Each structure stands twice: as C-alpha cells, then as structure tokens.
Amino acid sequence: MSRAAPRRRAEKPRRVRRGRDRAPVAPASPAVGPVVRRVSDEPAPAPAAATPVVAQPDPKAAPAPTAAPAVAAPPATAAAAPDTPATPAGDGDTGQPSARATAWRERLTRLRRSRVPQVAWWLTVLTGTALLVCGVVPVGPSWLGGAGSVAVVTAYTWALAARTGGRPVVFGALALALGVLVLLLDDDRGRTGAAVMTCAIAAVLAVMTTVPAKRFREAARECTIAVAVASVGALATVGFAPALTVVRFQYVTLGLALVGAFLLVHRLGAGFHGLGRRGLLATVGGGAVLLAFVGYAELLRTYGPSDLVATLLDGVRWCRENLGAFPRPLETVLGVPALAWGCHMRARRRQGWWVCAFGAAGTASVANALTDPSVALLESGLSVLYGLVLGLVLGYAVIRVDLRLTGSRGRRARRDEQDSAERPEPARSRALL
Fold first, then answer.
1. Range in 81-85, 114-118, 192-196 the model is least confident about
2. What gap in Å lies between CA 339 and CA 199, rounded to an integer?
3. On the CB side of 137, how many CA atoms lie within 13 Å of its CA?
4. Cα separation, 122 vs 155, whole angstroms
5. 3-class SS at 192?
6. Dihedral (CA of 30, 36, 37, 40) sign
7. How would you class 126 by CB atoms within 10 Å of its CB: exposed for 0-12, middle for 13-18, buried for 19 or more?
8. For residue 117, which of 398, 399, 376, 431 has the smallest C-alpha distance?
9. Residues 12-24, mean pLDDT to the nearest whole number
10. Close Cβ partners of 244 (under 8 Å, ≥ 6 residues apart)
11. Phi, psi for residue 309 in degrees, rounded to 5
12. What whole-number distance in Å separates Cα of residue 18 and Cα of residue 60?
C-alpha cells in the first residue's frame, strides 16, 4: 500500500502591509466621491489633479525604510502675501553690514590703495613749504608762516603714523586741530610746544623714511633725503614763532627725537635680543659719542674755554669768515655717519636699525638749525650742507672699515656680497610694521 501523503499545514491568510507593498490612499474630497479601500493587487486609480492628496499612513503599519511620498503644498501658501514688505539684507538682527555700508567700505578701500593719498600729501607739503618761504622772506600777510607750519606738521604726522603702522587719519586730524588751536589762541607757551613737537616729529620721520642701501651711493642718497625732510621741518618749526631759550630747546628736541627713534627701532629691530654683537658695539659707541659731545659742551659752557678750545674757536671763526659757515658738529660726527652706516647695514641684517636710530641726533640738529636768531638763514643752510658732506665722508670710512673687518676680501667677493644683499623691507611709501 502506498503511504498516505502527509497533510500540509493550513497557511494563515497573508496580511497586506499598506506601508510597504502599496501606497496608502487618502480620502478624496467630497466632490470626487467616497473613498474605496482596495485590498486586491490591482493598482488604485490616481486621484484627480485638481485636488491635492495628503497621505495618511495607517498607525498600525510598520515604518517604511524609504522616504515618505512627497506632499503637495496648497496653492494658497506657496507664495508670500503681497502686503508683507520684503526685509532688506543686513537690516535685521543678523549683525551683517548693510549694502550701503559695504559699498562705502569698498570705496574707501579703493581710495586707500590708489595714488590719491600720496598726491594729496605731496600737494600739502609743497603748499606748506611755499607758505613757509613766504613767511621767512617775508612776503604777504603775517599768518602765512603759521598756516604753512600747520600744513607741514599735519602732513608729517600723517606720514609718520602711516609709516610706523599707526592710524594716520586720527593722528593727522589731531595734529591739524592742535595746530589751528595754537594759531587761534596765539599764546607763547602753545607756540613753543607746537614748535618742539614739530621739530621732534620731523627728526624721527627723516630717519623712518630711509630704505636699505646695498652700496654707498645709495646710502648717500638716503642721507640726503633725510636731511631734506628735516630741513622742511626746520622751516615749520620757526613758522610757529616760538619764544624759547636756544640751548634748552636744542636739548629738549634732541632728547625727544632720540627717545621716539629708539622706541620705534625697538620694534623694527626685533627688540634687544636682536642687537647682536655688532649692533651692541655700534649702540654703545654711538651713545659714548653723544654723551661726550653733550657733556663737553656743558663743561665748556660752565667753566669757559681753555687754550685748546680757544684754538678750535679760532678755526670756527676762520670757517665762518672764509667759507660762510661752520658744519654742525652733531650732524657731522654722529648723525649722518650713523645713518649712512645703518642704511648700509640694513640691507644685510636687521641690526642696522639700531645704528640708524642715532641718525635722529643729526636730523634733530638740522630741524632746530633755524631757531638761533643770531645765525643768518644762509649761514644755517651752509652749515647743514657742510655737515652732510663731511658726515658722508666719515660714513664712507666707517663702512669701509666694517667691510674690511667683517666682509669678504677681494673686489670680486665684495661685488658678490653687494649683489646678494637683498634683505626685504617695505617701500618708502609703505608701512614698516
């Protein structure tokens, strides 16, 4: 007999999962008709296009692993209300600048990068110098000298702030306001204080405008530019018509110029740890020369001349009678040689800034050259010129000695050393910091 076939288990009816197998059907609008749920495998008819359909899944169905079907937005909420004003970008609480502020900022940036500020600065300096010359001659009204001084000190303050990485607009406007206030008050103390600050600013700016020099002729050019800047400052100093004591004024302006120069050089020369052996020797030597000059002048003024000093004074009188002037000692012996050597050294190493700081002694001596009423204008100019020439001779000797002791031997080696001296620094019209 054949074996009876095993009985198969009764299969349970398979439930249709609406969330997975087919999309749920939402109730249609009353205009279309009642909703009919279809359990069969036939696809449900698509709803009418005019009526939006919103899917309502069955709460008992399992969550679908895929993304839910898209839901059409009603036409009434698709567009914004026409009565609601649009909020401009930047006027809300986002903290972003407005379009107008951004446009003005871009204009100021383009103006700063153009040549308009430089042209305006040169026009201001030339106009102020012309007014100062008219005041010294004199030609025209008496207020021309004061107006020229205000123009020059404003331009110099602007340039010094821009060169040292400061705020030229703020400090230039402050110098202009103080200069105009001094002229309006017409007080001797105010005029003297303005003259002191003008002399110190001109002396420091004359040093800061220099650039590195690979050769001696370039160093001579930098010294000439520095003396020219300080000479215009000398005209602006006397344009304020200060009431002063000559010796005290010279000491005060010399001290302020040296302090300002060394404060800036401390940042430019990488602090005291950037001095090095050569920079330390140059700084100590320059300080010794400065103290010797100042101390000897005070001893001479206090105790009177000796026989040696009487002989030197005879030489000074001979130079004034035959050459028209005697070179200014501080400019000749310390200021111009230090500035020439420092510019030459800056092309090779940063320690040159510490040597250039002593150039402020020479530029300060030039800036206060016209304050002595007993010396004529022509004699003061010749003394500055003679000091520049003799100082360059001493500077050339110092540079040659420095290259002889520390540089390479031979003409070809020196030429190669000059060609390789490419220490970068910003241009003359750019900020150093």
1. 81-85
2. 18
3. 11
4. 8
5. helix
6. negative
7. middle
8. 431
9. 52
10. 192, 195, 371
11. -65, -35
12. 10
Q: For residue 93, what pLDDT band results from cuts at 50, 70 and 90?
A: very low
Token pair for 41: 């495998």
87: pLDDT strictly greater than 60: no
Tokens read off for 404: 């002889």
Cβ–Cβ < 8 Å for 23, 69: yes
Amino acid identity, position 405: L
Reading phi first (left if > 0) and then psi (alpha if -120 to 50, else beta), residue 56 is in beta
pLDDT at residue 13, rounded to an integer = 55
SS3 85: coil
Mean pLDDT, rounded, for 257-270: 88
* 336 and 359 Cβ atoms separated by less than 8 Å: yes
- Looking at residue 368, what DSSP letter applies? T
Q: What is the mean pLDDT of residues 272-301?
A: 75
Q: Output DSSP code: residue 44.
A: P
Residue 379's Cβ-side half-sphere holds a number of Cα atoms within 13 Å equal to 16
Q: What is the pLDDT of residue 96?
A: 61
Given a contact cutoff of 8 angstroms between Cβ atoms, the answer to whether 203 and 230 are in contact is yes
CA dist 380 and 377 (Å) reads: 5
Separation between Cα atoms, residue 234 and residue 202, nearest integer Å = 8
Q: Which residues contact 183 (CB under 8 A, 6 or more apart)?
A: 143, 146, 147, 150
The pair of three-digit structure tokens given for residue 164, joined into one six-digit string? 């040292």
Distances from the Cα of 321 to the Cαs of 95, 152, 314, 325, in angstroms?
Answer: 74, 34, 11, 8
How would residue 304 be classed by pLDDT, with cut points 50, 70 and 90? low
d(CA 7, CA 159) in angstroms, rounded, equals 108
Task: Give dist(CA 111, CA 178) in Å, integer.
Answer: 26
H helices of 269-376, in order, are 276-303, 307-322, 329-330, 336-346, 352-356, 359-367
> Tokens standing for 370?
């016209």
Return the structure tokens found at 325: 């002037």
For the whole model, what pTM was predicted?
Answer: 0.73
